[in-house]
Amino acid sequence: MPRLPQVPPGLESRPFRGSTAVGNGLLTWTMLRGLAWQRLLPDVYVHRAAHRPDNHRMWCEAVALVLPAGAALAGPSAAYLWGAGLPPGDAPVTVVLPRAARMRPHSRVAVTRSVLAESDLTVHEGLPVTTALRTAFDLGRRPPRTEAVVAVDALLHHRAVDLSALREYATQRAGWPGLPLLREVLSVVEPVAGAPMETRLRLLLLDAGLPTPLVRYDVHDAGGKFVGRVHLAYPGRRVAVEYEPGPPREPDLLRQEATRFHALRAAGWRVVRCTADDVLRHPVRTVRMVAAALRGRPATQVNGLG
Fold first, then answer.
1. % helix / strand / coil in the chain, to the nearest 5?
2. What percent of the chain has pLDDT over 70?
3. What is the pLDDT of residues 70-102, one digit of tens each?
């Protein structure tokens, strides 16, 4: 296999404008067509060793290089940069452009257009993005409802935005598209929700008409000793609903989880354990499991995975 040439300093790990590198004498156009470089966008390249098709941060950096004036990374991409980690790595980079701005279409770029106040834009980790507040405002108005709640929950959980500030921001923008959805979202968000699938599970139960569970609830036994924290809880009925991302691979973690589960049972709690498959593919069955637990059926009849 041909040996890759030495990489000029500063071009090892991040996307760059090809014209800038050529203009600075670091590379030639002939070199950019060689094996060492991957073209991401028109005039945007990255070194092959740093190229990851599912690296959303890399794609955000690449798109930022070609944004027109007054535009910014927005929506799920901005939420990702604010720490919420929402879009899959191979998702298009979402950008917001002023009404009059133009940008060349690309399959890895999702363009939205909106009124953009200067106060809605900032630079975060070296990239132009919508502020966390504007990001939450935009995502909370974007259907479907469940994903809007997931997005706002994630931004609140990571403390990128404050709930009262978001409500005030929305109040000041009467007449904007999507405000009815945002008001519904703000009525059910939970800043302490720990993960997107936990939010989806909670909304599944609410939409099925079950009582509103407490989120991230600390369970204590009859003597007041801390037993464990559960994802969703109905303390009055001693029912916990847990989202299981998958069995822990580390033996120590597996033992800890088993000990916690048995301690909850010993404290008199029924535990309904749900996987992503339960939430996304078998919602009716999942609701029935939780409803059965709330009715007081024996825990052995309502526990289980898959």
1. 40, 20, 40
2. 94
3. 999 999 999 999 999 877 778 999 999 998 899
Pull the structure tokens for residue 237: 């009925």
Cβ pair 290, 231 in contact under 8 A: no
Please indicate whether residue 227 or residue 252 has the higher confidence score (pLDDT).
227
pTM over 0.85: yes
State how far the alpha carbon of 53 is from the alpha carbons of 49, 82, 134, 141, in Å.
12, 21, 28, 29
Could you tell me if 130 and 121 are in contact, meaning their C-beta atoms sit under 8 angstroms apart?
yes
Q: How distant, in Å, are the alpha carbons of 134, 137, 159, 304 from that of 170?
A: 9, 7, 18, 42
Distance between CA 287 and CA 278 in Å, rounded?
9
The total number of residues shown for the chain amounts to 306
Contacts (Cβ under 8 Å, ≥6 apart) of 84:
151, 154, 155, 157, 158, 160
SS3 172: coil
* H-only helix segments in the chain: 18-23, 29-32, 56-64, 75-81, 132-140, 145-157, 163-171, 179-186, 196-207, 251-266, 276-281, 283-294
Nearest to 17 by CA among 41, 50, 52, 49: 41
For 130, the 3-state DSSP assignment is strand
Number of neighbours of residue 43 by Cβ within 10 angstroms: 16
Q: What is the percent of the chain with per-residue pLDDT over 90, rounded to a whole number?
A: 81
Asked if pLDDT for residue 48 goes beyond 80, the answer is: yes
Residue written as token pair 């007054």: 70
Whether 79 and 86 have beta carbons less than 8 Å apart is answered as: yes
